[in-house]
């Protein structure tokens, strides 16, 4: 599903979201010389477990962790919008900010959170995730492709309309596509370890046990065979 895909934009709520949900797949894409750009809506300032770290310090730390994690899977372009962690809403302002980046990057595919709540596995359904998924999907259709939506993007910034042919949703209740990441799993793990403020408390064994649990479950669902690991997506045609 990478024919004619040259550039992919990944829109996530927090630093580490892409690495939990899609880093193995991203590593496969960059191996194919597909350009991948990360956009984090927040700096993750509400994360972490150390009361001695101020929220400003945490935001800076998490930006650095995301940049380091991105390098593990071949991504160099990491952007942040700086919205407050834990208080994201699917506003017109967020849709405009996401439309701006879509028009700047001009991707052939956008990866984003599912805007739907997943009752079988609740953790991907963080309110920020669902809000970002909703706003990003609206930015893909109809905002970014409509030259009359947010006309200031064209008039003031010279950003012409852009149509994204497809989106890949992460964490939703109805995945329809699985990517075998067995060969890129080590890079996914390295990316997650780069988020030490969020994962170090689990210990290496705890992190790997959690990852193997759901990734091997995805692989079984996809019929990939014993010992394989997979990430799950819902692919939506938005062309």
TrEMBL record:
A single GO BP term for this record reads:
glycoside metabolic process
Q: Which domain of life is it from?
A: Bacteria
Q: Which InterPro entries has this protein been placed in?
A: GlcNAc_PI_deacetylase-related, LmbE-like_dom_sf
> GO molecular-function annotation terms?
hydrolase activity, acting on carbon-nitrogen (but not peptide) bonds, in linear amides
Q: Please provide the record's keywords in A-Z order.
A: Zinc
Q: Where is the secretion signal located?
A: none
Query: What is this protein's record name?
Result: PIG-L family deacetylase
Q: What is the lineage of its organism?
A: Bacteria, Bacillati, Actinomycetota, Actinomycetes, Streptosporangiales
């Amino acid at each position: 599903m990478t024919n004619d895909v040259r550039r992919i934009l990944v829109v996530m709520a927090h630093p580490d979201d892409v690495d939990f949900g899609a880093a193995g797949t991203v590593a496969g894409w960059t191996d194919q010389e597909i350009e991948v750009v990360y956009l984090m809506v927040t700096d993750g300032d509400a994360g972490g477990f150390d009361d001695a770290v101020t929220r400003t310090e945490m935001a800076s730390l998490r930006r650095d962790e995301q940049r380091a994690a991105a390098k593990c899977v071949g991504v160099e372009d990491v952007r942040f919008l700086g919205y407050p962690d834990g208080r994201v809403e699917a506003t017109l302002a967020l849709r405009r900010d996401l439309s701006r980046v879509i028009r700047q990057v001009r991707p052939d595919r956008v990866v984003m959170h599912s805007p739907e709540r997943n009752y079988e596995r609740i953790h991907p359904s963080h309110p920020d995730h669902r809000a970002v998924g909703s706003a990003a999907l609206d930015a893909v259709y109809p905002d970014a492709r409509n030259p009359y939506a947010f006309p200031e993007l064209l008039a003031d910034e010279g950003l012409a309309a852009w149509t994204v042919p497809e989106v890949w949703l992460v964490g939703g209740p109805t995945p329809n596509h699985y990517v075998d990441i067995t060969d890129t799993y080590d890079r996914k793990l390295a990316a997650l370890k780069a988020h030490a403020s969020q994962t170090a408390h689990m210990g290496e064994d705890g992190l790997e046990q959690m990852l193997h649990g759901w990734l091997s479950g995805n692989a079984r669902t996809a019929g990939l065979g014993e010992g394989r690991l997979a990430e799950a997506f819902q692919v939506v045609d938005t062309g």
